[in-house]
Amino acid sequence: MELLNKIFIKLGQLDRRFIFILIGLSVLIPLLRPDWINIPIKTTSNSRIVFEELNSLKSGDKVLLSFEYGASTKPEIHPMSVAVLQHLFSKGIKVYTVPLWPEGLMMAKFAIEEVVSSNLFKVKEHIDYVSLPYKAGGEIIIRGIATDLRSIFTQDINNTLLSEIPMMNGVNNISDFDFVFDLSAGVPGNAEWVQFACDEYNIPLSSGCTSIMVTDAIPYVESGQIRGILAGMPGAAEYEQIVFEYLNKNRNNKYLNEKVSILPGKATSRMSAQSIAHLLMVVFIIFGNISYYLTRRDK
Amino acid sequence: MVEIIGVWCAVLLTLSIFSYLYGDNPFYKAAEHIFVGVSAGYIFTITFWDTIWPNLFGRLFPTIVQAGFDFDASYIFPLILGVFMLFRLSKKYDWLSRISIAYIVGMMAGLKFYVFLNSNLLTQIKSSAINLSGSYLSIINEFIVLVGVISGLVYFFFSKEHTGAVGKVSRIGVYFLMIKFGASFGFAVMGRISLLIGRFEELIEYSSFKYYYSTPAILVLMIIVLTYWSIKNTNINENN
After folding, report:
1. Where do you find CATH 3.40.50.1220 in chain A?
2. ipTM more than 0.85?
3. B43 lies within 8 A of chain A by CB
4. What is the mean pLDDT of residues A106-119?
5. Which member of A198, B98, B201, B212 has the lowest number of beta carbons within 10 Å of its beta carbon?
6. CB–CB contact B187 A223 (8 Å)
7. Which of A134, A194, A224 sits opposite B50 (nearest CB)?
8. How many Cβ atoms are within 10 Å of B123's Cβ, its own excluded?
């Protein structure tokens, strides 16, 4: 027992760099050898709600996809963007992307390029999707989209006038959209969409956000102001899995290219690394607390 | 070739930031400064060309800018307020920038007041009520939420000393807050690990022959430089 106490006290004094190395290895090994560890993903109700909300939309419906993340949060949010775009395109829904963060412009471009270049969907720019440019202002831009989109945006990212884009006909404010999906990593984000547009104009809103934002967004989800939420990388992996199953089931869908194979998303393969790192963190926390207790008791 | 250069830069900057785990060093400092500079430059450029140029100058000089807007003389006021903001750089006229700041504060306060009242106060109060027509489980769930809301609010009520019944209710509020902080911490850890996974995945991808083994090559180079730098620093410290 005495020996065990000494071991725990020594563990409490461990150089933090060893902990960094162990965390690094716990992430690196599952990524290098994905066949060694395969932890199944269970779909949560919030991810299921997001899917059902988007799935209830009809062909030709208009969805505003808001990009509020950058390179730093790309691993968490980007797989969601791709999965949501795949889901929307597979149903023939018109997608309007709008970046509210400077980097969101590039993220929207990358997500669209990734989905379009896969050739899985029969989509064309200005017919099935349109990319609006970045405008500085955050909440003010959301308010502007809610009241008069044309007073802020007159061109898309390729400088084509909105009046010359067929799918922009009749799109003047938030009420002309059937759904808003927000991909956010901070402010402005889902809270601002709730406050400045969707609550007041009664437009359904769902969100995919970083893990750190989830506890702040959950009250909106519980009250129905946000319809379901994709929470961080696990949320992205769950949504990828649901969409993957949906696309395989609807293989003969007229919006899908039959000759192109459907590939699983990136977030799913990352979940083993995430789970192992979490387990290690839990072990560290338990050992740290025992060590702290023993050190304090000896004093 | 451009892609290869980009990949090598990305790997060098990622490993430079990671090198902070060893300690503060020139690689980390350089990467940090590059990040600040590039971010500022990128945001400035994109804000000017995507917002100021089309939305402001596009309305004041529509024939030159051709952003699809008609001439609107009222946009002279935002231009003046914007110029006033730049006077922050002048010691003599920096008071002019306060006019612009006052406009922003006033406008945002008015806008936020309404939306916050509507979305965060009224709707949240409504959703914390118990729906007695629901199932037993949902009633229990909503009851817990209501207890959490009331006890949490009591904890932040400072006009009465937290003793007796008020103290007990506020104590329950503390437990709810602790659960919230625990959940936030868990989610924060999850987020940070996700970002680490993202970086590692790219570093693994860039280790291949396609990218001329950029990750191992830069890693070895950095270890050599850092070892030399560390030995040199130790010698200087010993001599001093």
Report:
1. 45-264
2. yes
3. yes
4. 96
5. B212
6. no
7. A134
8. 19
Between CA A88 and CA A95, with CA A91 as vertex, the angle to 5 degrees is 40
**Cβ contact, residue pair A274, B193, below 8 Å:** yes
pLDDT for the residue A159: 93
Dig out the tokens for B144 from the structure: 């817990």
CB-based contact (8 Å) between B145 and chain A?
Answer: yes
Residue A227 corresponds to which tokens in the numbers above? 């319809």
Check CB contact under 8 Å for B191 and A210.
yes
Distant-in-sequence contacts of A257-260, Cβ < 8 A, 24+ apart: A257/A119, A257/A120, A257/A121, A257/A122, A260/A118, A260/A119, A260/A120
Residues A29, A268 contacting (CB under 8 angstroms): no
Number of neighbouring beta carbons within 10 Å of residue A70: 20
Q: Chain A partners of B19 at a C-beta cutoff of 8 Å?
A: none
B210-B211-B214-B216 Cα dihedral, nearest 10 degrees:
-10
Q: A66 - beta bridge partners?
A: A98, A182
State the residue for tokens 């400045």. A196
Q: Are B98 and B81 in contact (CB under 8 A)?
A: no
Q: Which residue has the higher pLDDT, A7 or B85?
A: B85
Q: Count CB neighbours of B63 within 10 A.
A: 6
Rounded Cα–Cα distance for residues B14 and B6 (Å): 12
**Chain B contact present for A233, CB below 8 A:** yes
* Cβ pairs bridging A and B (under 8 Å): 137
Question: Is B208 part of the contact surface with chain A (CB cutoff 8 Å)?
Answer: no
A274 vs B47, B116, B197: nearest CB = B197
Distance CA A271, CA A30 (A): 9
Whether A233 contacts A75, CB under 8 Å: yes
Q: How far is CA B173 from the centre of its chain?
A: 29
Q: What is the mean pLDDT of residues A259-280?
A: 88
Look at chain A and count its residues.
299
Q: A134 near B50, Cβ under 8 Å?
A: yes
Residue B237 confidence (pLDDT) above 90: no
- Looking at every residue in chain A, the average pLDDT score rounds to 93
**What six digits make up the tokens of A224?**
């129905």
Instruction: Read off the pLDDT of each residue in A92-108 and give the average, rounded to a whole number.
Output: 97
Q: Which CATH homologous superfamily contains domain A45-264?
A: TPP-binding domain (3.40.50.1220)
Of B126, B127, B194, the CB nearest to A76: B194
- The Cα–Cα gap between A190 and A182 comes to 6
At A15, is the pLDDT very low, low, confident or very high (cuts 50, 70, 90)? confident
Nearest-Cα distance to chain B for A273, in Å, is 7
Q: Do A27 and B196 touch (CB under 8 A)?
A: yes
From chain A, pick out residues whose CB is under 8 angstroms from the CB of B200.
24, 27-28, 31, 273
* Integer Cα distance of A59 and B219 in angstroms: 50
pTM of model > 0.80: yes
| A54 token code pair | 């988007």
Amino acid at B213: Y
